[in-house]
Design goal:
The chain is α/β, with parallel strands linked by helices. Helices cover 29% and strands 33% of the residues. It has 4 helices and 10 strands. Strands 4, 5, 6, 7, 8, 9 and 10 form a 7-stranded mixed β-sheet that branches. Strand 8, helix 3 and strand 9 form a beta-alpha-beta unit. Helix 1 runs parallel beside helix 2. The longest helix is centred in the middle third of the chain and has 16 residues.
């Protein structure tokens, strides 16, 4: 196994190479209620990972849910490229008459949203329980947790 100057770790095998890039994002999607699609994002959202983040957010917004929740509580870094994805996602949610909610616990996410003046653009809560407790259409519906990805 060799390491290059970019911090990438590569293992060479005959005829192929495998590259692991530190700081990659991880995504998981679930439906805590029938009308809610939730995606948990874990890792750093920067210029390198923002395209993947955009693709996954678009996928969740494409689900037939009146509420889309992005759990950003495990995010450890949020750069301008990630903020742009969130702004675009909020615009898409409004255009399609959906509600987008961000779960934020980490100061790095809240601070990035606040110092850029974007705080009024997003509905932010501290937990999924806060989302579920809010008065949203169909709140009483649903039968628990449905894993989708």
């Amino acid at each position: 196994m060799a390491s290059n100057n970019d911090g990438q770790i590569a293992a060479a095998a005959p005829g192929r190479s495998v590259t692991r890039v530190p700081g990659m994002l991880r995504f998981s999607v679930c439906r805590p209620r029938r009308h809610i699609a939730m995606m948990r994002v874990d890792g750093e959202i920067d210029l390198w990972t923002a395209p993947s983040f955009r693709d996954q957010v678009s996928r969740v917004l494409g689900a037939r849910s009146s509420v889309v929740v992005l759990d950003l509580s495990p995010v450890t870094f949020l750069a301008a490229a990630g903020l742009q994805v969130l702004v675009d996602a909020q615009a898409q949610a409004e255009t399609t008459r959906r509600r987008m909610v961000l779960i934020t616990k980490d100061r790095c996410v809240d601070r990035a949203i606040e110092v850029t003046g974007l705080a009024p653009s997003f509905h932010r809560v501290r937990s999924l329980n806060a989302v579920l407790a809010e008065s949203v259409p169909g709140f009483a519906e649903g039968a628990g947790y449905e894993e989708t990805a």
